[in-house]
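Job type: complex structure
Entries:
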Amino acid sequence: MSSEWPLWEVFIRGQHGLNHRHVGSLHAPDAEMAIHNARDVYTRRNEGVSIWVVRSSDVVASAPSEKGPLFDPANSKVYRHPTFFDVPDEVGHM
Amino acid sequence: MSRIATDMPPLAEFALRMGDTCLILGHRNSEWCGHSPALEEDIALANTALDLIGQTQLWLALAAEAEGRGRTADDFAFLRDVSGFRNLLLVEQPNGDFGRTVMRQFLFDAWHLPMLKALTQSSEVRVAEIAEKASKEAAYHLERSGDLVIRLGDGTRESHDRMQVALDFLWPYTGEMFFGDAVDDELVRAGIAPAPESLKPAWEAHVGSILAEATLKAPERSYAQKGGKRGVHSEHLGYILAEMQFLQRAYPGAKW
């Protein structure tokens, strides 16, 4: 039966987290039931304060075969990390 | 029929009625664990069962305290026979197919939530406190079971027919929720609990609107099966107790 239901990706905003994080996926007949199911599957130990669900088929993903052109150019570009600044002592921990 | 088959204080009797109803429905739902039609529904039903067993512990502990004879919540759950149970007949009915289980849960939730909301105003503070905690869980149960009734009722031809069969089967067991007896009269007088019949308009309105959306039709007949509240049960309760109580009966006092 569950194979007839579409798959949904579930994102939960935790008690202390600012961002919704992907926690997994589940099946549900529609968006409202997906929220209910996500509540029951992923927040039963008080993990969340907000739930997003999105149909898995609506997620656009990068192709694994494009991995090289997409990500390799970012290698060895240390100047893109803000590590060359002197932080004044008064600033404290950042 | 207002005969009282008990010499317990009304508060203890009331706590047993609430606790036993939660216990038996919780046990019925737990029978689905590992058998539900979808993993997501399996977890959701188990959550509901656990909520109800949690509420059972509160109600039966209150019953034990109000009775004042040194019995515990566990004694009530595991060492009483069929005639000692005070649950509504609705909740002891067999699970049937998934549709019937969902329909039973919905018909119960639509009564349970307004009942608990009324109980938050109880003159008895221990009752009000249990109701406050339980009503949040019941609100979610009702939302979920109502949504499922709509989707299955207004779903495929087969799911619609199964939901209609379930509704026809369970309908005669819903009237008992709204019949008061002498115990209820005393509870109302003491401001502990609402009159059972006072909950009927809200139940009918909510059930009516969900059934309409689900394209289901409530049966016309108004005959109500009753007896659970005074310990007269259908043949099904004995089998539930046999399974639920086996360990404590076979190995008295066993702990783990």
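Summary: DSSP finds ten helices and no strands in chain B. Chain B has a mean pLDDT of 95.
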